[in-house]
Write a structure and sequence with these properties.
With about 140 residues, the protein is an alpha/beta fold. The protein is about 30% helix and about 25% strand. Helix 2 crosses helix 3. The two termini are about 20 Å apart.
Protein backbone atom coordinates (compact mmCIF):
# COMPACT_ATOMS: atom_id res chain seq x y z
CA UNK A 1 0.00 0.00 0.00
CA UNK A 2 1.84 2.99 -1.24
CA UNK A 3 1.71 6.09 -3.40
CA UNK A 4 3.93 7.08 -6.27
CA UNK A 5 4.01 10.48 -7.96
CA UNK A 6 3.66 9.97 -11.69
CA UNK A 7 3.06 12.69 -14.28
CA UNK A 8 2.18 15.20 -11.53
CA UNK A 9 -0.40 12.87 -9.97
CA UNK A 10 -0.30 10.74 -6.82
CA UNK A 11 -1.13 7.16 -7.78
CA UNK A 12 -2.07 4.65 -5.10
CA UNK A 13 -1.09 1.04 -5.68
CA UNK A 14 -0.79 -2.24 -3.83
CA UNK A 15 2.02 -4.66 -4.63
CA UNK A 16 2.57 -8.19 -3.32
CA UNK A 17 6.26 -7.77 -4.35
CA UNK A 18 6.97 -11.44 -5.03
CA UNK A 19 6.53 -13.81 -7.93
CA UNK A 20 8.37 -14.51 -11.18
CA UNK A 21 5.73 -12.91 -13.40
CA UNK A 22 3.63 -9.83 -12.72
CA UNK A 23 -0.12 -9.38 -13.10
CA UNK A 24 -1.25 -5.74 -13.17
CA UNK A 25 -4.93 -4.96 -12.50
CA UNK A 26 -6.60 -1.81 -13.87
CA UNK A 27 -10.14 -0.98 -12.69
CA UNK A 28 -13.13 0.64 -14.37
CA UNK A 29 -14.40 4.21 -14.11
CA UNK A 30 -15.31 5.30 -10.56
CA UNK A 31 -14.03 2.07 -9.01
CA UNK A 32 -10.77 1.35 -7.21
CA UNK A 33 -8.22 -1.43 -6.91
CA UNK A 34 -10.42 -2.88 -4.12
CA UNK A 35 -12.55 -4.49 -6.82
CA UNK A 36 -9.73 -6.98 -7.46
CA UNK A 37 -9.09 -8.03 -3.84
CA UNK A 38 -10.35 -11.59 -4.37
CA UNK A 39 -8.24 -12.06 -7.49
CA UNK A 40 -5.14 -10.62 -5.78
CA UNK A 41 -5.59 -12.96 -2.81
CA UNK A 42 -6.01 -15.97 -5.09
CA UNK A 43 -3.05 -15.19 -7.35
CA UNK A 44 -0.47 -13.76 -4.94
CA UNK A 45 1.00 -17.17 -4.12
CA UNK A 46 2.15 -17.69 -7.70
CA UNK A 47 2.55 -14.19 -9.14
CA UNK A 48 3.62 -10.71 -8.21
CA UNK A 49 0.28 -8.91 -8.24
CA UNK A 50 -0.16 -5.17 -8.49
CA UNK A 51 -3.47 -3.31 -8.42
CA UNK A 52 -3.59 0.46 -8.69
CA UNK A 53 -6.09 3.31 -8.58
CA UNK A 54 -6.32 5.56 -11.61
CA UNK A 55 -5.70 9.25 -11.00
CA UNK A 56 -8.79 10.93 -9.55
CA UNK A 57 -10.24 7.64 -8.30
CA UNK A 58 -9.95 5.41 -5.27
CA UNK A 59 -7.06 6.52 -3.07
CA UNK A 60 -5.14 8.27 -5.85
CA UNK A 61 -4.93 12.05 -5.93
CA UNK A 62 -7.36 14.21 -7.85
CA UNK A 63 -5.56 16.01 -10.68
CA UNK A 64 -6.14 19.72 -11.16
CA UNK A 65 -6.37 19.45 -14.94
CA UNK A 66 -8.53 16.36 -15.27
CA UNK A 67 -7.50 13.29 -17.21
CA UNK A 68 -8.27 11.29 -20.31
CA UNK A 69 -7.45 7.82 -21.59
CA UNK A 70 -4.12 9.00 -22.97
CA UNK A 71 -3.00 10.40 -19.61
CA UNK A 72 -4.20 7.23 -17.85
CA UNK A 73 -2.15 5.19 -20.31
CA UNK A 74 0.90 7.39 -19.74
CA UNK A 75 0.42 6.84 -16.00
CA UNK A 76 0.50 3.05 -16.28
CA UNK A 77 3.57 3.18 -18.54
CA UNK A 78 5.39 5.18 -15.89
CA UNK A 79 4.08 2.92 -13.10
CA UNK A 80 5.52 -0.12 -14.89
CA UNK A 81 8.83 1.65 -15.48
CA UNK A 82 9.09 3.12 -11.96
CA UNK A 83 8.53 -0.32 -10.44
CA UNK A 84 11.24 -1.73 -12.74
CA UNK A 85 8.90 -4.30 -14.24
CA UNK A 86 9.55 -6.13 -17.47
CA UNK A 87 6.44 -7.08 -19.37
CA UNK A 88 3.25 -7.64 -17.37
CA UNK A 89 0.05 -9.63 -17.68
CA UNK A 90 -2.33 -6.66 -17.89
CA UNK A 91 -5.92 -7.16 -16.70
CA UNK A 92 -8.29 -4.30 -17.47
CA UNK A 93 -11.97 -3.95 -16.68
CA UNK A 94 -14.08 -1.47 -18.66
CA UNK A 95 -12.07 1.78 -18.68
CA UNK A 96 -9.07 -0.21 -17.46
CA UNK A 97 -9.42 -2.35 -20.56
CA UNK A 98 -9.34 0.76 -22.73
CA UNK A 99 -6.12 1.75 -21.00
CA UNK A 100 -4.77 -1.76 -21.57
CA UNK A 101 -5.50 -1.65 -25.30
CA UNK A 102 -3.66 1.66 -25.62
CA UNK A 103 -0.77 0.29 -23.56
CA UNK A 104 -0.47 -2.80 -25.77
CA UNK A 105 -0.69 -0.78 -28.99
CA UNK A 106 1.81 1.90 -27.95
CA UNK A 107 4.18 -0.14 -25.77
CA UNK A 108 3.91 -3.81 -26.76
CA UNK A 109 7.22 -4.53 -25.05
CA UNK A 110 5.54 -3.85 -21.68
CA UNK A 111 2.65 -6.31 -22.19
CA UNK A 112 3.16 -10.07 -21.93
CA UNK A 113 -0.58 -10.74 -22.18
CA UNK A 114 -3.74 -8.66 -22.23
CA UNK A 115 -6.92 -9.73 -20.46
CA UNK A 116 -9.89 -7.48 -21.31
CA UNK A 117 -13.12 -7.59 -19.32
CA UNK A 118 -16.36 -5.80 -20.30
CA UNK A 119 -14.62 -3.14 -22.38
CA UNK A 120 -14.73 -1.67 -25.86
CA UNK A 121 -12.35 -0.40 -28.50
CA UNK A 122 -15.05 1.92 -29.85
CA UNK A 123 -14.86 5.64 -29.05
CA UNK A 124 -17.26 6.88 -26.39
CA UNK A 125 -20.25 8.73 -27.77
CA UNK A 126 -20.11 12.49 -27.04
CA UNK A 127 -23.76 12.18 -25.95
CA UNK A 128 -22.57 10.30 -22.86
CA UNK A 129 -20.30 13.11 -21.61
CA UNK A 130 -22.98 14.90 -19.50
CA UNK A 131 -23.92 11.58 -17.87
CA UNK A 132 -20.27 10.86 -16.98
CA UNK A 133 -19.77 14.37 -15.61
CA UNK A 134 -22.83 13.92 -13.39
CA UNK A 135 -21.60 10.52 -12.16
CA UNK A 136 -18.18 12.02 -11.42
CA UNK A 137 -19.79 14.89 -9.49
CA UNK A 138 -21.86 12.45 -7.42
CA UNK A 139 -18.78 10.29 -6.75
CA UNK A 140 -16.84 13.27 -5.40
Amino acid sequence: MTNLTINNAELYYEDTKSGKETILFSHGLLWSCRMFDDQVNELKGDYRVIAYDHRGQGRSGIPKNGYDLDSLTDDVVMLIKNLNLDSVHFVGLSMGGMVGMRLAARHPELVKSLILIDTSADPESPKNLPKFKQMNFIAK
